[in-house]
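Record type: monomer structure entry
Structure origin: computed from sequence
Chain ID: A
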Amino acid sequence: MSNLIKELWIFSKGGIPLIEIFHNSKVDPTLLGAFLSAMESFSKEMAGTTLNGFSFGESKFVLTSCLNDNVFLVCRSDTNVKDKKIHKVIKVITEFFENMYSIEEITNLEGDLSIFAKFKDKINLYFKMAEL
């Protein structure tokens, strides 16, 4: 498990959970996705900008979108982790995702999330290599 990223989720544009990596909390990904989707809409409506992060207690959540805003990645880390380090890792993860999947694949899933198994393996390997 990464010392930098404690949890990682990938959601569809509508907040539907697609992938969970390092999931070790009691956070319900369906509720988290709905909450973040609503917060993103609220952020765009009220401030004219996208939500890119927030903190709760000792946890920091960083968000980024990919595939032309059809998917968003959310990672949870400790609040003492520098944003610059998190964004560097998120950029790599986003590039992996965009190189492996197309918008069409994501929008035509029909509930079959098994296509993400190779991505999960790649991310787990990435973090294992980073810890060497």
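Annotation 1: The helical segments are 29-47, 83-100, 103-107, 117-130.
Annotation 2: DSSP finds four helices and five strands in the chain.
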